[in-house]
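Structure (tokenized):
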């Protein structure tokens, strides 16, 4: 891939790899990593004032993991199922 032109797909692939390797990925870790390594474009602040991943990232992520990752609403993390 040329330069630093990342796509939502790149971010989603990183997330799936992380979760496969570590078992879980907290939302705060994901946001911090994505901001630092992929750029601010993939993060936004939602109506509750919380940092969230951009819609295209979530879409690509869901497609990639195909149901193998679950979101833990109480713990604010994704886990490999």
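Design, position by position:
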């Amino acid at each position: 891939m040329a330069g630093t032109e990342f796509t939502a797909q790149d971010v989603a692939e990183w997330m799936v790899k992380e979760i496969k390797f570590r078992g879980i990925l907290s939302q705060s870790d994901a946001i911090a990593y994505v901001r630092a390594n992929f750029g601010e474009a993939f993060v936004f602040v939602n109506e509750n004032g919380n940092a969230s991943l951009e819609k295209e990232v979530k879409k690509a992520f869901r497609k990639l993991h195909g149901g193998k990752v679950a979101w833990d609403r109480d713990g604010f993390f994704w886990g490999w199922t």
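Reviewer-requested clarification: The helical segments are 8-22, 27-37, 55-65. The first helix runs from residue 8 to 22.
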